Give the backbone structure.
Amino acid sequence: MAILQVQDLAKTYGRADTAVTALGGVSFSVEKGEFVAIVGASGSGKSTLMHLIGGVDRPTAGGVVIDGKPIFDMNESELAIFRRRNIGIVYQFYNLIPTLTAEENIMLPHLLDNRRPDEGKLNDILEATGLTSRRAHLPHELSGGQQQRASIGRALINDPALILADEPTGNLDSKASREIVDLLKLSNKKYGRTLLVITHDEGIALQADRIITIMDGLIVRDEGVRQ
Amino acid sequence: MKLTARLALAQVKAQKNRSLMTILGIGLSSAMLTAVCGFVASAKDAMDAALGTGGNYGVVRMAALGIVGAIFASIIIACAAIVISNSFRVSAGERMRQFGMLKSAGATKKQIAASVMYEGLFLSSLGIPPGIAAGLLAELAGISVANNAFHSLYEGGVFVIDIVFPFSAAAPTFILSIAVSFGTVMLSAWLPARRAAAIAAIDAIRTSDIAMGRRFFPGRAAGGHTAMGAAPPRLMERVFGFEGALAAKFIKRSRRSFRAAVVSLTISIVLIVAAGSFGSMMGELTALMRDDAGAAVSVRYLRSIKVNGENGETIQSLPALPYALAESISEKLREYPDTAIYGGGRVGEGVLPIDESMATDAYKDYLRRQWQGAIEWPDRLDVNISTLDARQYEQICGIAGVPLGSRIFVNYLRLRTDTGYAAAFAPLDAPLGTMALLDHNGEPYSLKIDAAISGSDVPAWLPRVAGYCSVIVPETTADAFTWLADTPDHAGFAAYAEQVMGRLEPGGEMYYGFYTVTDWTAQIAQQNTIFDTIMFFVGGFVGMLALIAVTSVISTVSTNIRSRSREFAVLQSVGMTREGIRRMLNLESAMSSARSLLFGLPIGLTSAYGMYRALDMMGAIAFSVPWAAIACCVLCVFMITWLTMRHTAGRLKGMGAQDG
């Protein structure tokens, strides 16, 4: 069953002579529980694709269906709430709220819903991310790897249908990168989350079930990985 | 606490200095609004107590007071909204990245807007209560000043009722003050909140990156152009070197950031210049009154005439004051010890048509200035027909060198043009012989003139009892008579004059008309009391508004400096000395101050001139530029900007290039 369907998705910035096509109409689908890596050179359109799938940007043409729901048919508030409950996003620069503790950052989607997550589940995620002892620390008191683990925890807390990660190890050293990849894989295997990771790192891409290669805003290759 | 509220509180705590300045601005505006509400309520209570609440007058008074209060409140709200809104705009700008993160995590527009509004709520809860307390103190001080002034005016006989303003701290006043203050803050936060909420998640993330990049590296932006998209300002570079060019670029780039500070400073400058001009005009009017007095006490008599209001016909006309009676009053008044009396009466008036050959050059010069070009001949000169008491008439005949019984023309005029040119001169070239006049119906009649006096021959008291351009005729009855008394005992003489003139009262033994006794010293003291009271309120109002503007300047300048710490580090890393950075900041502060002054001073002077034209009806005063207020504005604006920049930059001193 396809959890994600991307249909002729296109995005153009600017108009007329200054128009730049970031994404030229791409289509693919991702099955539930699949781990997909999206690779491509800088400026190829990977991040644009992720922003569109995450619903933080709107396309020029085409659509995205997540768990059977066409997300661009929703208004902005509906989309925000849908994103909160169904999509987890992990950024290269963590994007944690500096004034909230690690635990609160993980709970962010719940806090936006004005509810507390199940304590057992929170502890489970804190343990999985290795942040149990650092739960009360502010982001600037954490290492880069710990901050990224907190952002992955935030992506997991709501049992989202889809986790999107944009260069999740791009800002980390090799040890921290390995930990993050392990954590992402854990979320995929243990929690059964569907994972879409944008990466430059061939090592990470090769751990995915499938690699989609983008060049100049178009999919040039979509192939499974023999594990 | 809700997440959005917690994030707002964290922002308030993180930006302590700006929050403090915003709280101060909110507090000051709340204080002013509370004071205005309190004054209106107090004035209503005072008037109700003094005049009663019967009929529709109570409603009319309330409406009138309400309108005055609303005008002042509107000015306060406008200034406060500009300043406070800027603070929220800056804060929302700083939180843009946070909003992007929240949006990508699923925050709705409403939640983002709520987070900004919560900031308003927290700052209000910190600023409004002390503001209300300060407002009550200001009300108490204002009421105390007003009560003292009104009481002294009552004691001086200016007011017939002793109006007492009660201190009003009633619940409706409180509720209104809090509601208006809170409404002002929330209104100020609403626009930045709406803008922050409207920005798309992707833009919030991207914008913050770009904005931060631009803020940190102002000379570079996408495409290799300068951030301002223009060549460095060459003049500044030539005069002040590279630092001058950088400072000019920064000022140009930061126009939007500095807008609120410039606008609020401009408003303050306008108000200070206008208030300064108002003060000097009031001072001149008071001085004019002092000049006009000439003597300490004046006694005036006016013949009683009853006129039919419908057709203007005289119903009852009591006879004019017989000369013998006027003379006896003069002598009676002279009996007061150490007192000189100058008496003169108005007999009638006429118009003298004059052509070019009759006018002196000084008069022609005046007319040219007044008409601003060609003079229309014949001109019409107003001439007073006056009489003097015997002693003064004798003196004038002596000055003119003519025997008693002569008619003497006082060839002396003091006038001013609409543009403020004032001069005293002899208007007629050769006034002797027969003077052909027109009466008030336009009928011609003539007067034979035996002698004329002008210039220094004219005693100071003469125009004040006989008028300018007057023909002094020998003893005759007068419609109006004035006695000027030069006496060391003003109050005693005034009481004595009341007794002397009391005989002319209705029902008195010799009723001819009405009289007034004016103690000019007391009058001037009362005038000064009114002047001081008005200036207390004007000064307080303008001063507090200026303080609100100062909070905006401090907040804007310090935020700007702090946000550029990386820029300074980069500049230092490429070899700019600390002295160079200080020089650049000094130039920036000078330029941003100059901008406020550039807008504020012309508008302030225009307002001052407009006010002068309106007040000019009250007396013949010339417009003068309020140099003291201008100097105060220039000095304060430069000092406040410079000191804030210096202080904030000083706190960044420790940052080296590697920290950036």
Chain B has 18 helices and 14 strands. The two ends of chain B are 35 Å apart (CA to CA).
